[in-house]
């Protein structure tokens, strides 16, 4: 029997009809770039709006949807800011797959290799394919072990091996498509560290300790600015609550407030809040040979200007992280070297110190420097933080400290952004004056 084609008169003529989706439960079709019913929730749909995915409430008849709730946003780098979602479907497990296309400054002239292809499930966004022109078709075979995909600019249908259990897609040589991607975002620094993601400004702050300089990377524009803070080592610097120009910093042995507009090459004001004893704010003092003296450092807390010593006999204070769900604090003394766990209270008290990971006992050479925790409670031991709109990009600083009297060559000292690390984290907290 020959196929029969009927026009749906009620819909009429559309300028660009896309993304038809048949919903077996309601026996009706929806169409737009992405519009998919949410299982188990009447009149609730997942849709795309530009580079965002959101949920809406719609009865299928009214001219206006309601309760528009943003879920996440993608492609928020400066060179992809004009991208938009163009295609999306759910696999049988309920996992969403969606792809973007490059900007279209002139109708029909889409920027090439600017889009990406993502999956979304259980609050986690995973990037699988980058450098896409126009994401424009996806399907699975009945056995659910093959995945098919179209990038319009390539003019081909590509086949991938598919694992529905974890949402992985593989090329024909079994290479997982969500590859780790590492890109530099700074020039080399002597000791780049204390990296801090500020969610409010969508900016990254980090310091070059010996040069007493702070750096700001604006993720919306891709621009980096820097400023000189003082003449002593700058241990850390990040924003204070209530202002985008006021910062808390550790300068030498002092806690200070710093005024900086985030653009100028010099800060406008440095005000001392408190000063510790003979230790520096990041490690113990040095001997005449420049070596850190073991056991002479301390750990402090500063709350509304009140300074309290929380630990002493520390060699090199070099990493802090908190698991708020478990009310635990994690801490690194580089010279031990180990990760310690404490019980933590909102009053700032810490207790029940426990060594939870020892580098020497696990046959790991080197010394730990930096610490953060991801949304799954896993600890990352290096100078690293998570950032981006979905907190799924990883930012890492490095250093070019002389080894045996020789300064490492570039790219030592460079700051990087990592894509597709398979984890997400938390934004940095601001200091409350």
Automatic annotation (TrEMBL):
Q: Name one Pfam family in it.
A: SGL
Q: Which cofactor does it need?
A: Zn(2+)
Any idea which positions bind a divalent metal cation? 136
Keywords, comma-separated and alphabetical: Metal-binding, Zinc
Specify the SMP-30/Gluconolactonase/LRE-like region domain's residue ranges. Answer: 18-171, 195-382
Molecular function GO labels: calcium ion binding; gluconolactonase activity
Q: Which Gene3D superfamilies match?
A: TolB, C-terminal domain (2.120.10.30)
* UniProt superkingdom: Eukaryota
Where substrate binds, per the record, is at 84, 86, 104
**How is the cofactor bound, as the UniProt entry phrases it?**
Binds 1 divalent metal cation per subunit.
GO biological process annotation, one example: L-ascorbic acid biosynthetic process
Family of this protein: Belongs to the SMP-30/CGR1 family.
Its protein name is SMP-30/Gluconolactonase/LRE-like region domain-containing protein
What is the protein's species of origin?
A: Rhamnusium bicolor
Kindly list the organism's lineage.
Eukaryota, Metazoa, Ecdysozoa, Arthropoda, Hexapoda
């Amino acid at each position: 029997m020959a196929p029969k084609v009927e026009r749906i008169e009620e819909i009429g003529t559309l300028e660009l009809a896309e993304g038809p989706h048949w919903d077996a439960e309601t026996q009706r079709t929806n169409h737009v770039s992405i519009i998919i019913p949410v299982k188990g929730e009447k009149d609730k749909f997942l849709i795309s709006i530009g580079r965002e995915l959101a949920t809406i409430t719609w009865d299928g008849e009214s001219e206006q949807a309601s309760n528009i709730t943003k879920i996440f946003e993608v492609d928020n780098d400066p060179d992809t800011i004009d991208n938009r979602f163009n295609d999306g479907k759910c696999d049988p497990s309920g996992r969403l797959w969606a792809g973007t296309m490059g900007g279209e400054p002139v109708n029909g002239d889409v920027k090439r290799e600017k889009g990406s292809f993502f999956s979304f499930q259980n609050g986690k966004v995973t990037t699988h394919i980058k450098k896409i022109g126009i994401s424009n078709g996806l399907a699975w075979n009945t056995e659910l072990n093959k995945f098919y995909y179209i990038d319009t600019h390539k003019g081909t249908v590509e086949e991938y091996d598919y694992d529905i259990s974890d949402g992985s897609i593989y090329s024909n040589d079994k290479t997982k498509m969500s590859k780790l991607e590492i890109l530099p975002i700074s020039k080399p620094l002597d000791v780049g560290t204390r990296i801090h993601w500020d969610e409010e400004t969508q900016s990254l702050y980090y310091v070059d300790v010996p040069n007493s300089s702070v750096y700001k990377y604006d993720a919306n524009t891709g621009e980096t600015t820097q400023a000189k803070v003082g003449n002593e080592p700058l241990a850390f610097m990040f924003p204070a609550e209530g202002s985008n120009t006021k910062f808390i910093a550790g300068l030498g042995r002092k806690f200070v407030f710093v005024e900086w507009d985030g653009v100028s090459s010099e800060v406008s004001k440095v005000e001392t809040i408190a000063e510790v004893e003979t230790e520096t704010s990041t490690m113990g003092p040095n001997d005449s040979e420049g070596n850190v003296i073991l056991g002479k450092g301390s750990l402090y807390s500063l709350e509304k200007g009140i300074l309290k010593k929380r630990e002493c006999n520390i060699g090199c204070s070099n990493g802090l992280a908190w698991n708020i769900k478990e009310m635990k604090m994690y801490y690194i003394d580089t010279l031990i070297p180990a990760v310690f766990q404490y019980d933590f209270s909102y009053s700032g008290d810490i207790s029940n110190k426990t060594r939870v990971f020892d580098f020497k006992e696990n046959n790991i050479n080197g010394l730990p420097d930096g610490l953060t925790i991801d949304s799954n409670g896993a600890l990352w031991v290096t100078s690293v933080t998570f950032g981006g709109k979905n907190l799924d990009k990883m930012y890492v600083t490095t250093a070019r400290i002389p080894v045996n009297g020789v300064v490492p060559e570039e790219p030592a000292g460079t700051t990087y952004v990592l894509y597709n690390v398979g984890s997400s984290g938390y934004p940095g907290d601001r200091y409350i004056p």
